[in-house]
Amino acid sequence: MDPFLKTLSEYRDYIPDYERFLDHLRKPLPVYFRINTIKTTIEEAKALLSNEDVVFQETVIPELLKVMSHVHERPLLAYHLGYIYPQAMTSCLPVIALEPSEEHRVLDICAAPGGKATHIAQKMNDRGFIVANDRKRGRITSLLSNVKRLGITNTLVTQSRAEHLNLPCKFHRILVDAPCSGQGRYRIDPQTGKVKHVVKGKTNLPAIQKSILKRAFDMLEPEGILVYSTCTLNVEENEEVVQFLISRRRAKLVRISLPVPSSPGITEFKGRKYDRQIGLARRLYSHQIDSVGFFIAKIVRQ
Amino acid sequence: MDETNFYDFDVLAFSRQAFLFRRQNHPVKWPERSFVRCGLPFVRNVAGYLKPTTAFVQRFGHLARKNVLRMELNEVCELATKGELMPPGPVKDIEVPGYVIIKTASQILGVALILDEKRLLNRFPKAMTQALSRLSGQ
What we know:
The complex is a heterodimer.
Chain A: H1 3-9, H2 18-24, E1 31-35, H3 42-51, E2 56-58, E3 64-67, H4 77-80, E4 84-86, H5 89-98, E5 105-108, H6 115-123, E6 129-134, H7 137-149, E7 155-159, E8 171-177, E9 187-188, E10 195-196, H8 205-217, E11 220-230, H9 239-246, E12 251-254, E13 263-264, E14 268-269, E15 272-273, E16 282-284, H10 286-289, E17 294-301
Parallel strand pairs in A: 5-6, 5-8, 6-7, 8-11
Antiparallel strand pairs in A: 1-3, 1-4, 2-3, 9-10, 11-17, 12-17, 13-16, 14-15, 16-17
Helix pairs in contact in A: 5-6, 8-9
Chain B: E1 9-13, E2 17-22, E3 37-38, E4 40-46, E5 49-52, H1 54-60, E6 68-70, H2 73-82, E7 84-85, E8 98-103, E9 108-116, E10 119-122, H3 126-137
Parallel strand pairs in B: 6-8
Antiparallel strand pairs in B: 1-2, 2-4, 4-5, 7-10, 8-9, 9-10
Helix pairs in contact in B: 2-3
C-alpha cells in the first residue's frame, strides 16, 4: 500500500463513507472560478465566460462557479480582466467563516498567492483595511500580481515570517491559513495506484503552525475572530494546534455556519483526548463537497 | 475623471509610480520599509507621460469622460496581434499624443498609446496581449 494512503487510512473511522472517499480520490481535482464582484457582476462574468466557451455550473456559493469544460490550455480574457480567480471551493469557506465587513481591519497572515485575501477584500466591498502577509519573495510576487489584477485598493502587503510578524495595530479579523502537508489535495493515480500532489519535506509543520497561530491570536482585538484553516486531514496539524492555543490563551471556539456538508473536529485520536469545544471545528472531506479536503476552526478572543 | 469619485481614497506617490489606497477611518502609521506595497498601482511616469495602469483603468475607467476610444472586440484583437493600428473612427475628445482607454461594448480592457490620428499602439500587458491574439485566432 502507498505509504500516503496508509496515512489516510488512520482516519477511516472518522471519514464518513470511507470507501466512497477513496473512490473519489481517483477523480481529478475540479476547477472552480470565483467571480470578482469588485470589478464585475456575476451576470457579466458569466456572459463573458460563455463567450469564451467555458461551460460552468452554479454552486451553493453565489460568486463561485464550477467549471465543467477544460480550459487550462488557453489564457482566458475574463482572467486578464480580473473578473475571475481560479480557486478550490473549500478555499472560499474560511473567508465565509471569518465574516469580514467594511468596518474591519483584517489580517491574512499567510496570504500568498492571495485567493483568500482577495476574497476577503471582495466580501468587504474593497473597503476597510486588509494586511496580507507572506514570507517568501516568490510567493509575494504572485500575491501582488493577484491583488493588482483584481483591482483591490484596501490591501497593504507585507513580507515577514508569520511567527515573527510585528505590526503597529490589532485586528478585528485574522485568517491563519497555515502552511500544511496538503493531505486534502491528495489524489490517487488510477494507473499506478500511487498518491499524487504529495508535499515532501522534513519541516516540523505542527511546531510552525502553533507558533503562527499563537502570534496571530496575540494581534487580535478583544472579541475579535480568528479563523484557522489548513488543507490537510492530519490531526497533529489541525485539532492539536487548536488545542495548543486554547490551553495557552483565552480563546474560545465558536460554531461555524457553512453552506456545504461538513464533519465535526476530532476530539479523540490514537488515545489522545482534546477539549470538547474542538468538536465545533469543521472537517471537510473531498467526496462530500467535490473539492479539496479542509479543516476550519473559528476562534474568538475572550 | 471627476475627482469627487476619489474622495474615499488617498494617493500615495513614489518616485515613478503612484498608488490608490482606500482611505482609513482610523489610520495607522506604518514605518517606512515595513511593507511591500499599499493599494492599487494607479499611474506610472513613462518618458515624461503619466500612464494609467491597466489594473486602474479596468477598475475605474468607466468614470472617464475623455480619452476613451470605443472599439469592437475584433479590432482590439487585431491591435493586440499586430501591435499597431490606425485608430478606428475619429479621435474625438482624445488628447493626441497620449494614452487612451480602450473600451468595447461591454468591457474596459486597458490602455493604448495614440501617437497621431493614424497610429494607435498596443500597451496591454503581455499576457493579455496573448489572450487577445488567441481570441482573434478563433
